[in-house]
């Protein structure tokens, strides 16, 4: 099966139905054992055109390609934001609630940047709406499996969130060395588990995930 280029087809349907902005939404770091979970948002207005060449779901791109696409993706969407919930919050409230918390933080940032959240439709990758329970007045949210592959706004959000979270983990490697976060970004590689056995957990580890 060939590579699928994301399009604005679904976003244009939502714009035609009355949405002022379509906000692509994707999460990164859900399966990591260290570091935050991140929720990225990319808002596209009605007049958005010309999807950046090479834009893909972040999982389909090398780290070098993601870094190259990051400035193109952030310039292409009208507004973007990434919300984070740290390891202690994941431990305290669980991963699904932490995703909702991170998403709320990202939506709040978009609101402060001038995006009319209640005039928007959020396209959430996957089949589970983790945002609505954490919002006092949720916008319209539509879940869509493979939205990160098919919808350009979600692919952009995916790249933006992945790059920003990766950069945080690379910086954390200097503060808490020995776990190889520059390479594994907090995911549970064999070398990462080996470092845990030798060094014990750091302040960035999700302790409830290590049992």
TrEMBL record:
Coiled coil: none annotated. Residues 20-211 form the RNase H type-2 domain. Its EC number is 3.1.26.4. A divalent metal cation binds at residues 26-27, 125. The lineage of its organism: Bacteria, Bacillati, Actinomycetota, Actinomycetes, Micrococcales. Belongs to the RNase HII family. The keyword Iron does not apply. One of its GO terms (biological process) is DNA replication, removal of RNA primer. Gene3D superfamilies: Ribonuclease H-like superfamily/Ribonuclease H. Its cofactor is Mn(2+); Mg(2+). This is Ribonuclease. Keywords: Cytoplasm, Endonuclease, Hydrolase, Manganese, Metal-binding, Nuclease. Pfam families: RNase_HII. One of its GO terms (cellular component) is ribonuclease H2 complex. It is found in: Cytoplasm. It comes from the Bacteria.
